[in-house]
Specification:
alpha/beta, Rossmann fold, CBS-domain, 14 helices, elongated
């Protein structure tokens, strides 16, 4: 008797499970995206008041919250601090056991609690009331202790949690985090905080590298191979050899950059028998590529590499000021040592 094999439904079950997973993930993201839209639409006078309160503070922003709100609070404090608003996170439970001393007059407290009734926050709330320290609350319950006692209450719209049981903080923490970003970036824009300022707080890592300026790594002073354009070729060769950059920047009587001689330029003129009787001006390239001290190193590398023309790649860039006078020299090796590739 022949045995007829049963069909394997594993693949079908796997596909169905995958589809269910994707549907679940999309539902979460769509739920939270809708909540963020509602949050954006709800911003009003209280948000403006919070910005004014933080801007007027002589001290720091003290962020506090318990549980998931605490984790979000740590990130908000870090974002504020990195964008020009001094801030740090204080754990509310630790505050009740001595860390309250970290909060002083002149500070502003930003307290986070969706329910507004986290018992660990009560001591912090009372402390701010006792010492007249401004309190900004972010909560989903205006009638809560936090909502009632805050000087400014930033309300979270009544949006369902992405958790199907309505229990795990998901939508509420996403809104809180986004509202913290909104505060930080609004304060950044109000202060005119620039990329240069940002670099001060991000000296390391990829961000620090991306914001590095030419002035930070260029060669200056006596290291520069700079001379008057009317010097002899022999003098130019001596300077090129002594400075070790393979080039010399030439300036006119006013010190303005007029040209550049490289090792390559010299090699191209070797067969000219009258080379020794010529001045540097006779040999120099008249249109050297230059950079500015405040140019990003990444931009300077793009100028040196010149991807549009392989034959125009260079290894050194003369750095000039606003009057076109040489103030520095950037070598490709300097960029590589700084971590650029």
């Amino acid at each position: 008797m022949a045995i007829i094999p049963m069909p394997d439904n594993g693949a079908a079950k796997s596909a169905a499970g995958q589809s269910q997973n994707i549907d679940s993930g999309r539902r979460v993201l769509e739920t939270e995206a809708a909540a963020l839209s509602a949050l954006a639409a709800s911003l009003g006078d209280s948000f403006d008041q919070a910005i004014e309160m933080i801007s007027a503070a002589e001290g720091r922003v003290i962020v506090t919250g318990m549980g998931k709100s605490g984790h979000v609070g740590s990130k908000i404090a870090a974002t504020l601090a990195s964008t020009g608003t001094p801030a740090f996170f204080v754990h509310p439970a630790e505050a009740s056991h001595g860390d309250m001393g970290m909060i002083v007059r002149g500070d502003v407290v930003l307290a986070l609690s969706n329910s507004g009734e986290s018992k660990e926050l009560l001591d912090v709330i009372e402390y701010t009331r006792r010492f007249a320290i401004p309190l900004i609350g972010i909560t989903g319950n205006a009638l809560s202790t936090l909502g009632n006692k805050s000087d400014v209450t930033l309300m979270l719209p009544a949006c369902p949690e992405a958790c199907p049981n309505g229990l795990a903080p998901t939508t509420s923490t996403t809104m809180t985090l986004a509202l913290g970003d909104a505060l930080a970036i609004t304060l950044l824009e109000r202060k005119g905080f620039t990329a240069k300022d940002f670099k001060v707080y991000h000296p390391g890592g990829k961000l620090g590298q991306q914001l590095m300026r030419v002035s930070e790594i260029m060669h200056t002073g006596d290291k520069l191979p700079v001379a008057r354009e009317d010097i002899s070729i022999r003098e130019a060769v001596d300077i090129i050899s002594n400075k070790g950059f393979g080039c010399i920047a030439l300036v006119d009587a006013n010190g303005v950059l007029s040209g550049l001689i490289t090792d390559g330029d010299l090699r191209r003129h070797l067969l000219d028998e009258s080379i020794t009787s010529k001045t540097a001006k006779d040999v120099m390239s008249l249109t050297p590529r230059t950079g500015a001290p405040d140019m990003l190193v990444a931009e300077a590398m793009a100028v040196m590499n010149d991807l549009k023309n392989t034959f125009r790649k260079i290894t050194t860039l003369i750095v000039v000021d606003e009057t076109q006078k040489p103030v520095g020299l950037l070598h490709l090796h300097d960029c590589l040592r700084a971590g650029f590739a």
